[in-house]
Write a structure and sequence with these properties.
Protein name: Thioredoxin-like fold domain-containing protein
Pfam families: Thioredoxin_3
Largest sheet: 4 strands, mixed
InterPro entries: Thioredoxin-like_fold (IPR012336), Thioredoxin-like_sf (IPR036249)
Shape: elongated
CATH class: Alpha Beta
CATH superfamily: Glutaredoxin
Length: 89
């Protein structure tokens, strides 16, 4: 049996997610097993959280979140710096 590279795409079904799905499928080789996962499902959301997914679309390859997808999502410090939680003068 031939070993396959597992590629998981975490998607919310938005246009940006569809673009990422197309890109990954275009780049995938015959030994890549690409799976599109719907973030609306509780089990998928749990898997995404365990991998460190903070925004979608996101791609994990062989159980590791791809560098391009890590570290995104809202951060409290950045939001506060932008003025969130501070009254207007």
């Amino acid at each position: 049996m031939t070993q396959k590279r597992k590629v998981e795409i975490f998607s919310a079904g938005c246009p940006a997610c569809e673009e990422t799905i197309a890109l990954v499928k275009d780049l995938a080789c015959p030994s890549c097993e690409v799976e599109v996962l719907d973030m609306k499902r509780a089990d998928v959301a749990t898997r995404a959280k365990a991998l460190g997914v903070r925004s979608v679309p996101a791609v994990a390859i062989d159980g590791k979140l791809a560098d391009c997808c890590a570290g995104r999502g809202p951060q409290a410090d950045s939001l506060k710096t932008a003025g969130l939680g501070q009254p207007l003068s």
